[in-house]
Amino acid sequence: MRGLAEYAMSGRLQAATVAVLFGLIPVPGLEIICGAVVALVILRRGMQDGIQILLWALLPAGLKWKLGEPSLVLILTGVVAASLMLRNSRSWQSTILLIMLGGALLQFSLPWQEDFIGQLSHSLSSLQNSGYSTQSPDERKALAVLVTQMLDMLLSYYGTYQALMILGCLLLGRYWQAHLYNPGGFRQEFHNLRFDRQLMAVLLGVLVFGASAIPTFTDWLLLVCLVPILQGLAVVHKVGLLRKLGSAWLVLVYLLLLIAAPIYILLGFTDSLIDIRKRLATDKTGS
Asked: What global pTM score does this model have?
């Protein structure tokens, strides 16, 4: 990854090449590298250079939009806004809140994305129709219900997915920037990531109220929980550093995130109240 970042930062042509290449590769998730290159250039060199790389990155993104997949255009738009916010404010809190707002707006925009919904529905229907002739009527009916449920689930998490992709691009771009020009800087930033108590109190209120009073709140659950999850991850990363637990600790951390995300949500809210990292650092100093 370091070599890829070094190559991208060696010139505009090289950065544009990486952005276009990874924007074109039809492998889910590789869009992050395309967006990360745009983020890296903006964070390091500013918007004037960044806009030139963005225009190149929009070539494969526009092609995908024409084919019914607008996600990369939306991700790149969010990456530009988030990168500028982080560069100008140096505030992860403001930047992440902007990303969350962007995810919410994208979720609300779904009714105007008929082509995308149609393509997604067609793709799932193709899955349903494979092996159609060998299926019994009951199997066809069950599969139709499953496909409808999958479509509803994918659409309900659309805004959250876009927000996570934007955040992933920004985090990777910031990591590359620190790795090339400020070794250890990204780790320090992430270990010290802590959101205002007032914000955490508002988010906790939204979670409690939403879960108890809004039947469809599960569609927004992960997006609202993004802040406490990130703060919880910052805590466990710092604990690993203070206790010198090594890379195996981080593997366990992210495995647990996949199967037990509420642990990190609870840890994030708890840290906002008692500042776990400060207490651990004090204990370590005292010992």
From this structure: 0.91
> Tokens 């276009």 map to which residue?
20
Angle between helix axes 261-274 and 226-242 (nearest 10 degrees) is 80
| CA–CA gap between residue 194 and residue 110 (Å, rounded) | 32
CB-based contacts of 76, cutoff 8 Å, min separation 6:
34, 35, 38, 54, 57, 58, 61
Q: Among 119, 149, 183, give the residue marking a domain's end.
A: 183
Count Cβ atoms within 10 A of the Cβ of residue 46 and give its class: 0-12 exposed, 13-18 middle, 19 or more buried.
Answer: middle
Q: Is the pLDDT of residue 286 over 60?
A: no
Q: CB burial class (10 A; 0-12, 13-18, 19+) of residue 226?
A: buried
Q: Residues 217, 254: one domain?
A: yes
Choose one of 183, 214, 243: the last residue of a domain: 183
Is residue 285 exposed (0-12), middle (13-18) or buried (19+ Cβ within 10 Å)? exposed
* Spatial separation of the C-alpha atoms in residues 252 and 243, rounded to whole Å: 15
pLDDT digits (tens, 9 = 90+) for 167-193: 999 999 999 999 999 999 999 999 999
For residue 215, count other CB atoms closer than 10 A to its CB: 7
Q: Which amino acid is at 75?
A: I
Nearest to 224 by CA among 251, 258, 195: 195
Closest by CA position to 80, among listed 103, 121, 51, 105: 51
